[in-house]
Amino acid sequence: MLLQGCSPSKEQAASDPDQQAKLAQKDSEANPPPVSGGPDSAEVIAAPSGMAAESTGSNQPSGVKPLPEKSATNDEQADSNRLRQKRLPEDLTPQQLLQYIEGADRDLQVLNNARAPVDGVIQRRQAAMEIIGVKLQASRRVQAHQEATPEQQNSGIRGELQSLSHLTGMGDVSAAQELRELAKKHLHSDQPLVAADSRITTIGFAINDLYAGVPQAADQIVELVNGIVSRPGTDVPAILIMARARELLTDYGHLDQAILVRAKILELFGDATDPMIARIADEAAGTVKFDAVERMILDHQGGAPVKIDDWNAAVEELLSDSSDQITVGYLIGAALGFEFAGDNTLVDATFAQLNSSVPETLAQVRQQIAAAQAASQARQDVIGSEMGFADLPSAPGTSVNREELKNKVVLMPFWSVAFGANALSILPELLELKKQYPQQVTIVGMNLDTAEARLEEFYLQSRLDFPSFHSVSSSDMQQPNPVAVRFGVVNMPFMAVFDKDGKTDSLHLNSTSLTQRVDALLNQPTTAP
């Protein structure tokens, strides 16, 4: 594992596949399939065999969290990089292009099911990029084909949304930019499935904006959610993105908006006749007991006092109803919020309730609590410690000059290809601070990937212009990363700030209060020689 003490909150644990992807993308990337036909880079891609007559694309695009926006490359340059010089035959009919889209979907399913006879993370990632490139190329060509019917063109639009979503999840910044624009373009399409895919994707970007502290992001999420309609084929991804939106809104203190999203889930799916849809919706909507706890969290974030007795009573009631991983993860998330708000009294009270209420028989849940509590303690212990990292190498393709860090405030975002684009969603604020104080503030990343990760490729795709240390995670992903353990990293984005003396000053999950903290550090005298 990269991190230790990662605890999914209620809705994420129940229904958010991206949460698992963040924590274990290495597992999924370790098994990509070959591209249909499997030609060399100079060859034309052979037609996939055994395809159905029509395809609308089997993979719904999920809400994604892109890297910070930069100037997009043009389509020709982006496609050239993604497709690795592979090309489809020029004379394909719309029907044949749709067959390529469906063939790519099947190949990606083989990737996800770990059945592909391709060894090595690098080769498998390359194969995945080729598959997605085929799908993207076919999707765009069917849209532009003069003989394509409106239905076939709509299938091409959905295929393009899905392809760009895949690439974004693999860290392609330009794909994220293209995806956001494409989803925005088709948000109000008169084609229901295209509009639904675009709305789900746009909500994902709004969630990313919430992560990054963009003003009005919470209200934008609610506005987008209110436009969701129940429609066969899109209900499950719609519920999943609404569940994630509700959970993040709660975590960031927007409880009023979270309650509105919950109400929309129940309005659309509360009386669903499909048992699976009804169950997923029920898990996504949560319970009144959760809302009581959420109200206290919002009060606390708004500056209102939360009495320990009231909090203990609410937590006790919640745990008496269920002490499973979902509920425990939710409360661990609440404790994390209290911690970063500086209220260790409520942190201690929460962990005390968890330790006293969860029975010993639930060994895995208790391990979850212990790991989260250890991470919380680590975050407290690391404050004031020296930066260190004397033995850490620089990430491939970068070079950290330790001399240049002296007498500067160092902003250190932790990131990992395995966590996808969201890990660096805080980067725009860091770059702005560096631009404001070019001689006094610098950025040095901390990468937590395995030695096999394609970091140089990620740097090029993302156009990152700062160096990074590389704390190498174990290839089998079974041992926690030592730097992640030292700093108590449980999720990303995560950032450490070091003062001009090279000591750990503060930790941050987002950009809130970051500018104020940096300004304060710049006004402090340097004590180091």
Would you kindly provide a written description of the structure presented here, covering whatever features stand out?
With 529 residues, the protein is mainly α. The chain has 21 helices and six strands. It has helices at residues 10-15, 17-29, 75-83, 94-112, 121-144, 150-169, 173-185, 192-211, 217-226, 235-251, 255-269, 275-285, 288-301, 308-321, 325-340, 344-357, 363-382, 427-436, 455-462, 482-487, 514-522, and strands at residues 409-415, 441-443, 445-447, 468-470, 494-498, 504-508. Strands 1, 2, 3, 4, 5 and 6 form a six-stranded mixed sheet that branches. Helix 19 (455-462) links the parallel strand 3 (445-447) and strand 4. The longest helix has 24 residues, at 121-144. The protein is globular, with a radius of gyration of 24 Å. The two termini are 39 Å apart. Residues 4-85 have low confidence and may be disordered. Keywords: Cytochrome c-type biogenesis, Disulfide bond, Redox-active center.
